[in-house]
Known about the structure:
Domain HTH luxR-type: 818-883
Shape: globular
Strand order of the largest sheet: 2-3-4-1-5
Number of helices: 47
Structural class: mainly alpha
CATH class of the domain at 6-177: Alpha Beta
GO molecular function: adenylate cyclase activity; ATP binding; DNA binding
Strand content: under 5%
CATH architecture of the domain at 6-177: 3-Layer(aba) Sandwich
Distance between the termini: 58 Å
Organism: Spongiactinospora rosea
Protein name: Helix-turn-helix transcriptional regulator
GO biological process, one term: regulation of DNA-templated transcription
Amino acid sequence: xxxxxxxxQAELGKLLDAARAGRSGVVVLRGEAGIGKTALLDWAAGTAxxxxxxxxxxxxxxxxxxxxxxxxxxxxxxxxxxxxxxxQAGALRAVLGQGPAEAADRFSTGLATLTxxxxxxxxxxxxxxxxxxxWLDQASADALLFAARRLAAEGVxxxxxxxxxxxxxxxxxxxxxxxxxxxxxAADLLAGWAFAPxxxxxxxxxxxxxxxxxxxxxxxxxxxxxxxxxxxxxxxxDRVLAAFGARLAALPEPVRLVTLLAATGGRSTPAVLLRAAxxxxxGPEDLERAERAGLLRVGADAVTFRHPLIATAAYQGASFAxxxxxxxxxxxxxxxxxxxxxxxxxxxxxPDDQVAAELADAxxxxxxxxxxxxxxxxxxxxxxxxxxxxxxxxxxxxxxxAALLAGRTEQAADLALRAEPLFTGHHGGRDDLARVRSAxxxxxxxxxxxxxILIERARHAEPDAAAEMLRTAAGHAxxxxxxxxxxxxxxxxxxxxxxxxxxxGMAHLLDGDPGRGLPLLAEHVESARxxxxxxxxxxxxIYGSVILGxxxxxxxxxxxxxxxxxxxxxxxxxxxxxxxxxxxxxxxxLHRDAIASVAEAAAIARDTGLRRRAEELDVVLAWIAAIExxxxxxxxxxxxxxxxxxxxxxxxxxxxxxSLGRPEQALRRLASAWRGPGRHVSxxxxxxxxxxxxxxxLGRPQEAxxxxxxxxxxxxxxxxxxxxxxxxxxxxxxxxxxxxxLRALELHRQGGRPFERARTExxxxxxxxxxxxxxxxxxxxxxxxxxxxxxxxAPWIERTRTELRAAGDDTHASRPAAAVLTDxxxxxxxxxxRLAAEGxxxxxxxxxLFLSRRTVEYHLYKAYPKLGVTSRRELAxxxxxxx
Length: 883
């Protein structure tokens, strides 16, 4: 029976009922040690009728073992792994040690865990209970939380139990906090104990409403740490810990020793514990005595403690010599290499080549299984025990690389700093160290420094490694707006006989020569579209197409890259490519698609800890808000811009100001941006049209001349039709008249950015009306209105309608049906519907979007009524292009 937990039981009951109805949910039980979290999990398991129950428990002794927690989950259900997509099945088999570890993304295991839970739920609702989650190893915690955040309509309920103070972070999950019991409930709990009233009252007061303390202090009949005055200053959980320590201290030494052995061995099998016990001259009779004392339970597969605090008390209360002896015995007798490494790590304090080598081997296994945080720790400890300085340097560098892959940027920086002075000469390990240090600086928002590190190291590296570093350095330097590192990278690549068109192109652009720079970028982009390249080269081609303003190439290259990442489960690599895709989708008028891309990228960035990326994604949405004239949303999104996206945010705000009739503010903002370090970026170049129009509206055309010269040179250098069209439009604004407008419209017909085409049509229509050619003005104005309405560009719609009325046309276009349809859908529904309309199965869609089959079908059935259809067959007949 549970005391004082009615509210929490009701909430957990709702969670279970929802899972039975096919809706997934996650909750975290929070509270101090002994507050009753495990009892609530037991209650949930006991009331989960009709549900399959899986249970995982974090163990303090295994908190550093890679995937120790996840193995618990997988072991009884491993026969289901074969039903998963091959990369996911491979990731989980690697966790179990049943196959090669080929995964490169630490989140691929979480994705596989999600898919596995969803597969299990196909045959009925599932309850997954995770006790003592604060002691889960990091790799298991990452995998389980990744799965938990992406559950939706599978019929899976997940409950984590964690202590308040121990830092188990589960952002986004609902929490249930367990309060202490009040005096009345505490008295009810002790009702079966025959105590004198004063002793009962004392136990209740000492326990402070903690259920475990009540039971333990009652069992001791008042002989507990509260008898000592200093105990009154201790937190109640520490008093219970001290009470357990006192009980252990009263036991014979062999029983204490075997209890310490069980506490140190984690989930070691009884056979392993008994072999280790023999080395310590204890045996099964002592283990039995510990069980009779109510400290632990001996099962067929493991020895478990009645409460985790008993294990903590056993370890903390032991002498240093006993701890070392126990770790040594377990290291000799364990059958698991990673467990042996963990024990060796605990018992070795002086440099030892053999132990260091074993720890490095364990680190390598952890890294191959994507347990990068564990790998970093093991490499670091291996380095500390390594006598030879050059080997110690290599292992610290390995630790730094693993920490970076684990998302622990500052730890990586510290390890790299420690490794650097240990390398001598031109050791090859310096290359990897330079890459780590550069990546750290880039993540810190110092792209210029990141570039310098790689350029300096490239002077001493082998040609192939040097070329790769120099290309990466050029990309970093571009974001810093500093031309010197890019010039240096371009020159060094030529010296190596590896001249690179994209690097040289960027150098010319930063020198203010788009006529030479953009054709080189276009050459690289075209080559990448035609010929398969390595991942780094494709990414550079995507960024090159963004610089060019070649939206079609951006979409083509990004789609191919995203497809590969989805197929391989390389989740953490998706956000920057999805961001580039979203930017291009915005430019080509696919606003809903862009919002969907941003939503997916933001969810992944949140799950993978890419905070800066999440902030940059907001700027893409700020552009859409600017086009739509949503001032509050645009300003809110732009406010979150990082240094690297500040110029893009300012350009979005300038467009908003221009659309809302504030040309002075738009002009001032853009003029300021041109004087800053980001003046080379393509988004600012493309905003030259806003700069020019603002100056013309203010009657200051002289302030538009320099922007027009820059933009015209950029448009002619790239040769992209939409850019050439906008350049002609701007020339028309500055006096070249109708011929320039007609030239602009002809170029727009070659395709490109519809918002810019509509603006050209609007300006031409206004020009015709002012020239008293009202009849001729109507056609371009109507075309502009249709586009603005499709894009939801409210200020531009109103401005165009005003012009149409002045031109004698009171009619107005209606938004296309596709835009109306797609506006009814959420971002996730839109992605699912589009893929379903292309003929993909629910399972295929789930694999692409990292969702379960049931969640895909949930989104489909939510979307069908919004679209007025009842089946997949009817989707193909809809125009879902939208805006």
